[in-house]
Write a structure and sequence with these properties.
Largest sheet: 6 strands, parallel
Radius of gyration: 23 Å
CATH topology of the largest domain: TIM Barrel
Distance between the termini: 73 Å
Low-confidence stretches: 1-22
Number of helices: 17
Order of helices and strands: HEHHEHEHEHEHHEHEHEHHHHHEHH
Helix content: 40-55%
Number of domains: 2
Bound molecules: zinc ion
CATH architecture of the largest domain: Alpha-Beta Barrel
Mean pLDDT: 92
Shape: globular
Structural class: alpha/beta
Length: about 400
């Protein structure tokens, strides 16, 4: 009798489990794979491709590769073209951008059955229907045009479909969020002026004419407001989260969110743990600031060996940061916040995969996007809303901008 009860229990548990998997398949999973998923920011070109890794094959390192994008149900991916505030090569920033664009084009050429480069809206939709990964070029940082309008035009001709006006570094014509919030700007002591110069405004107007989306992630607040007042087209924030939940310089405040909604643009949520969770940011600020020397000195006193101290420090640091990694639900709180503030037309996904060192628990790589859909379903979002958030809103902005 007892064994029969055990058997009955096992069977019931199995059928409950099977039911829950089936219901996942019939609701959120089905919805996820049917929807067009657009991610507006991924740094794999800089982090892996330029380092010689071939993302045509499944990799055990990094966040992204072709197999894993397919598994995650990604349809459209903006590839970030990025170079630091000092160029990689002596030829300069523009050359670095060209090198990265070439690496994407060569990847697409090697995988014609799985990838397609799109430069207009109908190519995007065609590629989605062909079930290929639709690749778009986003240039992250106005410094790559080297203050030269003709280089903006050349990059547009090569396929650039958004340009982030600044990265962390300002250009002579646009101030970045990092610089605008730096203490040197206090009281107008800084050398740079806040916002867009006249040349900066001409760049925004030219981007509108060329069909290049104006991306305002990384820009300072003044540049943000100047650009949004100048742009005749909806803007994008390709990888930014909500300041009111996690008040860091890279996130956007309520008035900015409202301005994007008024403009008809879209804010795509960045997955970086330090932009999602205030606690993570505070711990990271402490351990990369005053805490670092304090703890390293104590470790050295105990271990009396610099190499051992560094290993122990790294273990301690990784362990501490892991403890405060945000949850998937905390990431979805950012989506929720924007929806509650301005509606479901102005939020999307801009993961920053392969550009960030830490992501929320459960979102370890590009295979995990279905969990976001599952969480949205769990929170009572309608299918229509979810389709907008996963990609529909960005597609609208693309259609309004592309020629
Ligand atoms: Zn960035």
């Amino acid at each position: 009798m007892r064994s029969l009860l055990v058997l009955l229990f096992i069977c019931c548990s199995y059928s409950m489990e099977a039911q829950s998997v089936t219901s996942k398949k019939s609701s959120s999973y089905k919805l996820h794979y049917k929807a067009i998923l657009v991610d507006t920011h991924n740094d794999v070109l800089t982090s892996l491709t330029l380092a010689g890794k071939d993302i045509s094959h499944r990799l055990t390192s990094g966040h992204s590769d072709l197999d894993r994008w397919k598994e995650g149900g990604v349809d459209v991916q903006f590839f970030s073209i990025w170079t630091d505030k000092t160029p990689r090569r002596k030829e300069g920033f523009y050359h670095d951008a060209i090198e990265e664009i070439d690496s994407l084009k060569s990847l697409v050429r090697r995988n014609p059955d799985r990838m397609v480069l799109a430069t207009n809206y109908s190519q995007v939709i065609k590629g989605v229907h062909q079930q290929k990964l639709v690749c778009l070029i986003g240039v992250e940082g106005g410094h790559m045009i080297e203050n030269d309008m003709s280089k903006l035009e050349s990059l547009a001709a090569l396929g650039m479909r958004y340009m982030t006006l600044t990265w962390n570094n300002s250009t002579p014509w646009a101030s970045s969020a990092m610089d605008e919030t730096a203490p040197s700007f206090e009281g107008g002591k800084g050398e740079l002026r806040k916002g867009l110069t006249d040349f900066g405004k001409q760049i925004v107007k030219r981007m509108n004419e060329l069909g290049v989306i104006v991306d305002l992630s990384h820009t300072g607040e003044q540049t943000f407001y100047d650009a949004i007042a100048t742009s005749a087209k909806p803007v994008l924030l390709s990888h930014s989260s909500v300041w009111n939940i996690c008040p860091v310089f890279r996130n956007v405040k309520d008035d900015q969110i409202k301005a994007v909604a008024k403009n008809g643009g879209v804010i795509c949520i960045n997955f970086y743990s330090g932009f999602i969770s205030k606690e993570y940011d505070q711990r990271s600020t402490y351990l990369n600031g005053p805490g670092k020397k304090l703890i390293q000195d104590s470790l050295f006193t105990i271990l009396k060996d610099s190499a051992n101290m560094k290993t122990s420090w790294q273990q301690y640091y990784d362990g501490e940061m892991n403890k405060v990694r945000p949850s998937l639900a905390q990431l979805v709180d950012h989506i929720d916040y924007i929806v509650k503030l301005v509606g479901d037309d102005y939020v999307g996904i801009g993961s920053d995969y392969d550009g960030v060192g830490s992501v929320p628990v459960g979102l370890e790589d590009v295979t995990t996007y279905p969990k976001i859909t599952e969480e949205l379903v769990h929170r009572g979002y309608t299918k229509r809303s979810i389709r907008k958030i996963l990609g529909g809103n960005v597609l609208r902005v693309m259609k309004a901008n592309f020629k």
